[in-house]
Amino acid sequence: MLSTRSRRTRLLVASGATLAVAALLTACTPGTAEPAANSEKPSSNTEPTTVAAGETVTIGFSGPAADHGWLGAINSAAIAAAAEFPDVELIVAEGTNDASLQISQVETFINDKVDAIVLLPTDGAALTDVAIKAMQAGIPVINVDREFSSTFAARTTILGDNYGMGVSAGTYICEQLDGKKDAIVAEIAGIDSLPLTQDRSAGFKDALSDCGLSVNNRVAADFTVQGGEAATSQLLAAAPKIDAIWNHDDDQGIGVMAAINAAGRSEFFMVGGAGSKNAMDAIKAGNTVLQATVIYPATQAADGIAVARLIAQGGAMGDLVTQGVPQRIVLDAPVVTKDNVDQYMSVGFAS
């Protein structure tokens, strides 16, 4: 259900600290100023971005329950991004992992005749039909992170690069091992049944093969601290020597590190995944086996808000020659190390 209407931002449930978000997209909407050139790297500037106002648009946002650090950051970043636009009225549905409830939320957005919907579905296939219904009602849907099963369900899809995460992690490990052909590489995956985990593992395998390496030991956890600790304990017991580990997720990485410390193991280096603030702090300190992490942007829904605004106002993305907004946007998966960690601290999320 939806709360009573207010002028700017309407929230059903909004919890957690607001994440400072740098505007990654600039508008070329009627009546706006010329957009500034985008920076290639995240800015550490946390001052609000000044955006010239256009016609006020109402955007509905439905995302997951904030039961994971990355998911909490997704929600708070979307809210913070909307607050930077003087012409955006945001309706935030209660975060949920119940597909049926999320379907009803989207149906309410349709009945309210919002101008656009940003949707991170708890289950892409389950939300496909209602997203198509919204599109058929003339409401553009911005699909975030978990894809629908039909191209007709979204005007634009914004994704992190799961395969690219694996490639980035594998490439970094190859560089660090520098031709050591007998190196033992381990992998701590997330939930194996999820396509995103399968994509990450595929990218990792492909990148390692380019330098003559392979995954020698692999376990799967469940993106939780407890699961990370249990899976890592199993891995360390089975592998008396390891040269490098890639852990897919920095939230489960808290448990991974607990298992490593309990086992007293330090002969290897580790690469994390997603880009938590905790991981970045450890990388900067340089006093653990965690040497790097690969970004999986927690700003995807925030970007979705910016894109929804552009589409609803008939705008275009700044600096592109082609008019309009692309149908598919895949975000970068850079590696954060001690050398560049300060550039990414502003987008780190709390585990």
UniProtKB/TrEMBL annotation:
Which PROSITE patterns does the UniProt record give? PROKAR_LIPOPROTEIN (PS51257)
Which keywords does UniProt give here?
Answer: Signal
Periplasmic binding protein domain: from which residue to which, for each copy?
59-314
Q: Where in the cell is it found?
A: Cell envelope
Q: Name one GO cellular component term.
A: cell envelope
Molecular function, one GO term: carbohydrate binding
Q: Secretion signal: which residues?
A: 1-33
Could you tell me which InterPro entries the record lists for this protein?
Peripla_BP_I (IPR028082), SBP_2_dom (IPR025997)
Question: Which family, according to UniProt?
Answer: Belongs to the bacterial solute-binding protein 2 family.
State the name under which the record lists this protein. Sugar ABC transporter substrate-binding protein
